[in-house]
């Protein structure tokens, strides 16, 4: 039993490592990265998302020079490690099976690089990557957007310089705020500066639903300004004669009985977080169709949702869709979330590797709390489950769920036909230091706490019948 609790404790540590951290926080494990370094938060991001690791267990080596192969691989990983369409290798110096082969082929297909020579075709993977090269790689990966204006950094540079637009674009997008008044395009780029620029490119600041839907994709950290993001109104605005169609390949619309539902598909390394640092207030995502989940994630991995309020606009009791649905996904982290009905369940999950949630609320749902099928590892810490009612509160089939310091308050179900827990023999549930507002939460006939599937450790029971 101790081994089990130890592993679950580690899970919560891993959850915290996945979440974005301010630059003032410690960068654990690396003796050569100070919290005050301009690249400290970027290092945390890069390691958490697998963009790169340290050079040892205790060092990141931020001053080491990056090679062209390393930079292209970092960029490829930050974009979710997409497979190249073709495995034709045009470069004589990119060995088959090398760690940078797939990233280099992807970069060529995306027009990010053409190599360093054409006869023979060379990529020069071991050469130092310069400021000009990495900024051009990032700029091309972003779509080679024209800069809004020329920067003072490039005033004296010739217009023929291939990297001038890239540097101006980076300056306009606040990527070069640590460079001062000058930038040497031929300066070799360090590991610290490389991850800082990649992290800044990944950050997107959004203030409306159109911007949110356009920004969704792999390797993004989306910051949402306070306000209501009505997904249904956005769908109505993009509707044509044949119905609505998203221009974003990672956003798919499913036609339901009474409207459309938003699916986010095939995305890796995505953070969507509330940003109220300048304007305090809630960030709320809502939908209007009663049969729609607020958001569905399909075939996604390493997703972080933080500080969001999500729910339906219809009144409770007239809803058939859940709030958050996960299908065939990898790892999910939820922090400071407020998931509310009339959604049928707060979270519906099918074939998911890991769901970790902390400091959140699931409330006012019309069916129950959670509906999980084949979820390998779900952990909830300091989550409040309240004011839900209708049917079985927690459905778990072939799933492992762990609750620590959670509260279950004012949830109601018909005890003649329904249960607090509806689980099969393939599921494993643990409640540790949790609070329940009445003793009848557990159906002692079917599940008693001595059963093989449910472990209850040191609960607090608030018996409402006794006041």
Structure description:
- The protein is of the alpha/beta class.
- Helix 3 crosses helix 4, helix 3 (68-78) runs parallel beside helix 5 (131-141) and helix 3 (68-78) packs parallel to helix 7.
- Residues 1-14, 16-26 and 444-450 have low confidence and may be disordered.
- The chain has a 15-stranded mixed beta sheet that branches. The chain has a nine-stranded parallel beta sheet with strand order 5-11-14-16-18-20-24-28-30. Strands 1-2 form a two-stranded antiparallel sheet.
- It has helices at 2-18, 40-48, 68-78, 101-109, 131-141, 164-172, 191-202, 209-215, 231-237, and strands at 117-118, 121-122, 203-206, 220-224, 227-230, 239-240, 243-244, 251-256, 259-265, 268-274, 283-287, 295-298, 301-306, 308-312, 324-335, 338-340, 347-358, 361-363, 370-381, 384-386, 389-390, 394-397, 400-404, 407-409, 412-413, 421-423, 428-432, 435-436, 454-457, 460-461.
- Helices cover 20% and strands 30% of the residues.
